[in-house]
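Hey L., structure's done. Input below.
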Amino acid sequence: MCNIRKYLPEILGCYIACSDKDFMDGNKIKCPCTKCLNRPYVEVEVMKFHLAKFGFMLNYHVWDRHGETSVRSSSSVGSTSSGIDYSNTSLNEQHEPSYTDMILDAAGPDFITRMVDEEPNPEDKKLFDMLNLADRELWPNCEKVTQLSVVDRLLNIKSEYRLPEQCFNSFCQLMKDGLPEDNTMVDSLYGSKKLIQALGLPVEVIDYCRFGCMIYWRHDKDLGQCKSCETPRYKTSKNSSKGSRVPWSLMHYFPLTPRLKRLYASQATAASMRWHAENHGHGDGVMCHPSDSEAWKHFDSIHPSFAAERRNVRLGLCTDGFQPYGISGKQHSTWPIMITPYNLPPSMCMKEPYMFLTAIVPGPNNPKHRLDVFLQPVIEELKQLWEEGVITYDVSLRQNFQMRAALMWTISDFPAYAMLSGWGTAGKLACPYCRNYSQTISLPNGKKVSWFDCHRKFLKPDHPFRKNKTKFRKNHIEKSGPPPIMNGTEILSEIEACGFVKVTEVNAEDIYKACIKRHKCGWRKRSIFWDFPYWKTNLIRHNLDVMHIEKNVFENFFFTIMDVKKKTKDNAFARDDMKVFCNRKSLEKNEATGKYPQAPYALSREQKKVICKWVQTLTFPDGYVSNLGKCVNLSTNRLFGMKSHDCHVWCVIVCFLLLCPNLELGID
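Output:
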């Protein structure tokens, strides 16, 4: 610390020099320490570290290489504008507080801590030692590849092309024999895995009940049958006594903590993990990142100790089911659990390397409300990261810190929302916002639940749409207001008052059925996310995936406009229900002919053909959207196979046409 005190004025000058971009090479600046002597350009953080460790170079009082003007160079050597000479004396007690305040104002309260270099903690030091060892040349003077890069590529090839172990060993042995004698090439799959395992990215294989009742984990890992349905854990076989027992079902869990620590162990990401707390370069009221949202700021105000450490990690969890064998293949529902750190800037946040696959629920059946059973390892690890944290080495600041993490919210489509939140998304109480205040109607002909005309209650009390009796529901005036908003504490109290429990509890199914009969509410379970001590204080707990909803909405109105059979929403039942609830005489059934008139919004066969031909000629920038021309079938005048992003682009085109109706598009 005495070394830092001695050079506080010079270090303050370094901060002033860093603000002059004309004398910097990108994010680098010439280092004025006794080792570098203003020769190389280094990172700003590295320069601060050098000044604290090696000291400021002698007799460099006029900063002619960092932007100081000639006028200032005429001042006396070793003096400042205040007349205090720092060339021969150290900082005394009289002037220490003022310079300390200046340093803290310029660099922040954690400046002194950041200037102290630390060795990595023992766990992270093993990683750095392994990387230094594995990053050695494959043979002397080899500059293209390293031992670790070659092994990584070979394992990727083995996985992609499903090479057997003996074939992989033969390739390794051939390469080792063909390289110079002093090579470091591994000679087998065992050696490759041993090298990669030192990275510290483990995977946990967990058995679970074939019906999804429980997982054999922690205290239940030695059980031989399910606690709920008493189904055997292992398959029965004639030779089961001679070999290892085979479980009926198993899932894979990838611990999150090691991968979060790797973000601080890499120079490419360590500094970016503090981006969310820095100045983003935009004005107030502009949202370019979740850190600009009210939910993020509310979380910081409720948990100031967590927000005080900028390197604590904010996470988002998302999940959705997919069919690995395609639509036409075997019916199989696999559910990956993805977690994304939001500390990173927008250019990195949603990129593939930073979307962590944390667990895989392999199916083949949809887990539905029992998804919480498979989330137990994820929730337990996140609870530990919140309550205790983990010692992590920040390579950008060269210090260890206690890293903690918090789950801000989940992201899913509407059906998965029910699985994560515990609120049922089917029936009259499907809306989680309106809850028991929902004004749904049952369609007498379509036999479905409709939320038609439920939006007017959110308008202002004096809005003219509230009194309109013709454009919305027939002869109906909306007088009610929006439903009250419940906070997390009130929601949790309501769930507990109904008696719902987690699906991981014994006899959860029986309790669920009893609660449904006793209470008419939309809740179906107590979500496992309520185990987080901070979950009830979150302003937003569950988000809906806009791309999913946008695709569903687009397909409904697009297929209706294109009049696609069996997919259009304009059918006989809809016309009959429209007669009951709406004032649309032009669309009602003609009693004389028994036919329904053609809707003005539905395209004719010739118009649909023109649209399809136009879509075939559309060209977009590379990577902007898929080839829409391949989604066109001219024989039936239909568009098919469009993905979520394709539907989003279509919505943009439609909005553009509505805003620019006179634009010439080459179609009639």
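The CA atoms of residues 335 and 361 lie 5 Å apart. The longest strand covers residues 405-412.

-- N.
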